[in-house]
Design goal:
By secondary structure, this protein is of the alpha/beta class. The protein contains five helices and 15 strands. Strands 1, 2, 3, 4, 5, 6 and 15 form a seven-stranded mixed sheet that branches. Strand 7 and strand 8 form a beta hairpin.
Length: 253
């Protein structure tokens, strides 16, 4: 494997190769593969944005027992490293440590609210402060795009318990005439059990992983709807992340 680039030490105005918005299953796997590169392609300078760094790689189930992680993926490696421990929080801690120790990834706790493409650069606006810049952006926000979480008779603007929804980002995408379709899923193993309703990107709005009417913005994972209508699985999301990583590593800056 080629020597990876120096760890990202961004200053004001720094231009990343790729910014990954969302650090769940899809976002973490993609960022890890992009930063590491391959035998023939050097790793890239990657920004991985999460609304909560303590929730990197969070899964809906309280255990990884029976999880169909793609062999060779970061998630499969961490699960194998921890065996026989299968509880979710030790898994998340180990996963976060691996990402923090991966040269080329810059972790940022922030909330992206809008995107603007101009002259080969995508500017990401955030709630918290100065805009961020990248040559390419991958949205991997899972079930958080304008999400509404229902617990019994209560409802909150969240994609998971205590994790806020991406309302402003959904509104920005809709303003670009992107068609967003209602979706829902439930977490019956959570305590308490809950249901989440959110917006997702249908296959008609994608060319592969690229969002139509954009040059450099991609969508990945649970926030997208598969053309065959089959629900996403851990394995399918990780496989898609591996495929997109290969595509982006092959694109020259």
């Amino acid at each position: 494997m080629l020597t990876p680039p120096a760890r990202s030490r961004p200053q004001s105005g720094h231009l990343y190769d790729v910014a990954v918005v969302g650090a769940g299953l899809a976002g973490c796997e993609l960022a890890y593969r992009l930063a590491r590169g391959t035998d023939s392609q050097p790793g890239q300078d990657v920004l991985l944005v999460s609304q909560a760094l303590d929730h990197l790689g969070n899964l809906y189930a309280p255990t990884v027992t029976g999880a169909d992680f793609l062999p060779g993926s970061l998630f499969a490696e961490v699960a194998e490293q921890l065996a026989p421990v299968t509880e979710s929080w030790p898994f998340h801690r180990a996963l976060k440590a691996r990402l923090e120790d991966t040269t080329g990834i810059h972790l940022l706790q922030s909330c992206v609210t809008a995107l603007d493409e101009d002259a080969g650069v995508v500017t990401l606006s955030t709630w918290e402060g100065p805009p961020l810049r990248a040559r390419r952006v991958v949205l991997a926000v899972g079930a958080f795009l304008k999400a509404r979480l229902l617990v019994g008779d209560s409802m909150e603007d969240a994609g998971r318990l205590s994790e806020v929804a991406y309302d402003f980002l959904a509104e920005d995408l809709a303003a670009r005439s992107l068609w967003l379709q209602p979706s829902e899923r439930s977490a019956q193993h959570a305590e308490p059990p809950y249901e989440v309703r959110f917006l997702s990107v249908p296959a008609a709005e994608l060319e592969g992983f690229l969002l139509r009417r954009t040059d450099s913005v991609y969508a990945l994972g649970q926030m997208t709807l598969k053309p065959d209508g089959v629900p996403h699985s851990y394995s399918s999301v990780l496989r898609d992340a591996a495929t997109l990583a290969g595509e982006l590593l092959g694109l020259a800056p």
